[in-house]
Write a structure and sequence with these properties.
256 residues, mainly beta, SH3 type barrels, Fumarylacetoacetate hydrolase, domain 2, twelve-stranded mixed beta sheet, five-stranded mixed beta sheet, 4 helices, globular, binds magnesium ion
């Protein structure tokens, strides 16, 4: 199933995307396995699709594909490289990535996003995927010129609009380690790799992170980018496409 978050008038809600209609549901983060339908239906074309959840925090993994570590000339990590994006960085499909004046080089990074369904603390790896609601597309937008000088990935990657998520949460993914992740810059393929190349698989990431902090319903883990990173310019459009999930596309603009 595809879970969307959407806006109609001044209200927002969650729903199941059913072809060209949305069947509204209650919060997908409370209750049992079944999603509670409210009975209201909306034409997809008549609502605005939002980021698919409102994470309290976005946990991000650096260097989770061998090819990307090589292109940055960094050694393969023994443990996941963890940093965070604030909730204020999150935007939805078709929302604009805004370039901050502080940076002269803003990069795209196509990534698989993992949406947490229920509180997760000290979760063993074998049970970790039980805590996942589903998967979405993510773009780990990065002020590359600020990453090395500051040594602070959260600063380089935490600007407003630097975390596009969407377009929905796909709940039916058999194996998150067998998905093709692609990035398109203005329609041209620039990134392509299988999540089979993950150095740390999703289940291990959830175990690692939840040994430190409680993952809350709606929190998102973005799992690292394949090789092929590069810069964006105002006026560009970047699209993340993940097999069995969908496509997330965002335009770019300068500030002001
Ligand atoms: Mg990244």
């Amino acid at each position: 199933m595809r879970i969307v978050r959407f806006q109609y008038g001044s209200e927002t809600g969650y729903g199941l995307l059913e072809e060209e209609e949305i069947a509204e549901i209650g919060s997908p983060f409370v209750g049992g396995e079944e999603f509670l339908k409210t009975g209201r239906r909306f034409p997809r074309a008549g609502v605005r699709i939002l980021a698919p959840c409102t994470p309290s925090k976005v946990l991000c993994i650096g260097l989770n594909y061998r090819g990307h570590a090589q292109e940055l000339k960094l050694p393969l990590p023994d443990k996941p490289v963890l940093f965070m994006k604030p909730s204020t960085a999150v935007i939805g499909p078709e929302e604009t990535i805004i370039f901050p004046p502080a940076s002269r080089r803003v990069d795209y990074e196509a990534e698989l996003g993992v949406v947490i369904r229920r509180p997760a603390k000290n979760v063993p790896q074998e049970k970790a995927l039980d805590y996942v609601l589903g998967y979405t597309c993510a773009n780990d937008v990065t002020a590359r010129d600020l990453q090395s000088p500051t040594g602070q990935w959260t600063y380089a990657k935490g600007f407003d609009t630097f975390c596009p998520l969407g377009p929905w949460i796909e709940t039916e993914v058999d194996d998150p380690e067998k998905l093709q992740v692609k990035g398109y810059l203005n329609g041209k393929l620039v990134q392509s790799a299988s999540t089979a190349e993950h150095i740390f698989p999703v289940a291990e990431l959830i175990a690692f992170i939840s040994a430190c902090m409680t993952l809350l319903p709606g929190d998102v883990i973005i799992t690292g980018t394949p090789s092929g990173i590069g810069p964006l310019q105002p006026g560009d459009r970047f699209t993340v496409e993940i097999e069995a999930i969908g496509r997330l596309s965002n335009p770019c603009a300068g500030e002001g």
